[in-house]
Amino acid sequence: MRRYIVSFSMIEHEYSVLGGPNRAAIGRTLSLVAAAASSILVALALAAIDLARALGLSHAIPQVVLWPLTAGLIYAGLYWLFDQHVWKLPRLSKLLRVPDLSGTWLCHGQTLKPDGSPERAWTAEVAIVQSWDRLRVRLKTPQSTSNSIAAALVYDQADGYRLLYNYRNEPRIGQPQLAGHRGSAELLFSEDLQSAKGEYFNGHGRFTFGTMQLERKAQQ
Fold it and tell me: Could you give the number of structural domains in the chain?
């Protein structure tokens, strides 16, 4: 029997939101909406059944109508829609203070020497996968790939949105001069969420640091 092992670093993880909404409050709001919707749907279904029976059409009522319309089932559907799609609506995202950073970004990086002078320029493609609950930042260069393992989004009225994340880097096969390592990055996004700039710091295998500039790629 084959076994398939997926590295946890390649799976979307939960992320913190600082300066934004209380996520528990969002959950409570959705549960109240689900309870109200369940009551209304059950009442409508029962009224339709009574009307059909009064007209002598009870034999034509599909059995599925008699299934219980539970608040839990409605909540699960509402939460899935909110988690995957609804929160990304521009006006709602701005109101909730949680930016939609999902997409592909072009990264221009600059490794710096200990005295702060430039040492090496590099480019990468950054993919950000984001839902309301989970997020993943993947940075890929011809030599290696890094994936975030923890992240936080910070909203600041003066500076805007800031993304902080820790990552694990794994060199590609055929790169013996590179060592796997861990690091952290901090990115400050522009007001229109089309660009970002920040810094990165590596350790636990490669002690380097530098700057990053991101530009969002246009969706095709």
Answer: 2
Query: DSSP letter at 142?
Result: S
Q: How many CA atoms lie within 13 A of 167 on its CB side?
A: 27
* Banded model confidence at residue 70, pLDDT cuts 50, 70, 90: low
Q: Calculate helix-pair angle for 23-54, 71-84, nearest 10 degrees.
A: 130
Residue 182 lies in a domain: yes
Domain that holds residue 205: 99-216
Position 8 in a domain: no
Contact by Cβ (8 Å): 125, 104:
yes
Residue type, 34: A
**Comparing C-alpha atoms, which of 109, 129, 132, 139 is closest to residue 210?**
109
Q: What is the pLDDT of residue 200?
A: 96
Tokens representing 190 are 């522009």
**Phi–psi pair at 41, nearest 5 degrees:** -65, -40
- Distance from C-alpha of 80 to C-alpha of 105, rounded to nearest angstrom: 26
Contact 212, 199 (CB under 8 A): yes
- Is 160 strand, coil or helix? strand
**185 and 164 in contact (C-beta within 8 Å)?**
yes
Distances (CA, A) of 214 to 9, 68, 194: 22, 50, 8
For the chain, state the CA radius of gyration.
24
Dihedral angle over CA of 36, 41, 47, 53, nearest 10? -150
Q: Which pLDDT value is given to residue 152?
A: 95
